[in-house]
Amino acid sequence: MLFGTDGWETVTLEISVTVEDETLEYVFPNPEQHEGVIVVAGYCPSTHKRFAEPVIWHTGHTDSFGGGTYTTDVTLERSDFRERVSLTPKLVRNRTRSGEDDYASKAGRELATGRGWDVFFDEPVLSLEGDLPVEAARFSERTDLGTENNEWYVDVRNAEEPKLWVNKDHPYVVEVLNTVDDWDKRGHVGRVVLNHLAASMLTQFTIKAVQHAVVTGEIEYQWQKTLLTDVCSEYFGTNPTVDELEDLLQPEAISTTINQVESIVQRRRTPHEDVQKLLGVIGDE
């Protein structure tokens, strides 16, 4: 994370990339004398700027690199980037070769990809729209939103306008939730994360909707009605009484209530479908 620090124009990142001998043996016909290069590929979605910085490369048929860890410095200009820059290590073929076999032959062909990571130049801004209002804040700077380790917080202190807070101390959570409408791998990941978080989030909202109704003696607000008589109507019914709701909060019933609500929410968001789609995308790579 580079945001929060003013007055800088460039940043230099020390990047280490590890390649295994088994990988070189798998992608090159002769791993002892290959023509490959390891690069760090960068892409900024906000400015559409792309770059590739070499980490290690062959210097001839007799001087190819082997398995090991290689380090380089990558310098980025502040003026070139906004918000997030994704960095991905790649093993690429550096020269075209002849031959009729199953190995890649054209220069520039991507042979292997490592785990990527993100550099945040600017603080992510939450753009998620969903079941309930969502806002982002830095929990480390607040005393009313739980601990800074929490990724989110269900807030019904103002029952007329309940909110879901997302912790900006975890920028990846905010960023990945912003991708839920995309249909690439990052979008699939966003939907899996959202479905995982949403089950717990909406379960807490629903239980708090029940508690508020019991305390006030009525289902007072539309968000309560939506959660209790729409989202979870198969458990609470379409017109539950306050006494019925109170019974569901009793010590002997609360565990069943939470489990039932969570099960309904999970089915509603069909997380299994998004997991299957994500696995399919990964399998196609």
What does this structure look like?
The protein is of the alpha+beta class. The chain folds into 2 domains: 10-120, Immunoglobulin-like (Sandwich), CATH 2.60.40; 134-283, no CATH class. The protein is built from 8 helices and 10 strands. A hairpin with a 4-residue loop joins β2 (36-44) and β3. The longest helix has 32 residues, at 185-216.
Which secondary structure elements does this structure contain, and how are they paired or packed?
Blueprint: E1 10-19, H1 21-27, E2 36-44, E3 49-57, E4 68-77, E5 84-93, E6 110-113, E7 117-120, E8 134-137, E9 152-155, E10 163-167, H2 171-177, H3 185-216, H4 222-231, H5 233-236, H6 242-248, H7 254-269, H8 271-283
Helix pairs in contact: 3-4, 3-6, 3-7, 3-8
**Overall spatial form:** elongated
| Mean pLDDT rating | 79
Structural class: alpha+beta
- Which percent band covers the strand fraction? 15-25%
Largest sheet: 5 strands, antiparallel
Report Rg. 25 Å
Q: Which residues sit in consecutive blocks of at least 5 with pLDDT less than 50?
A: 126-131, 271-285
Q: What is the number of helical segments per DSSP (H or I, 4+ residues)?
A: 8
Work out the helicity level: 25-40%
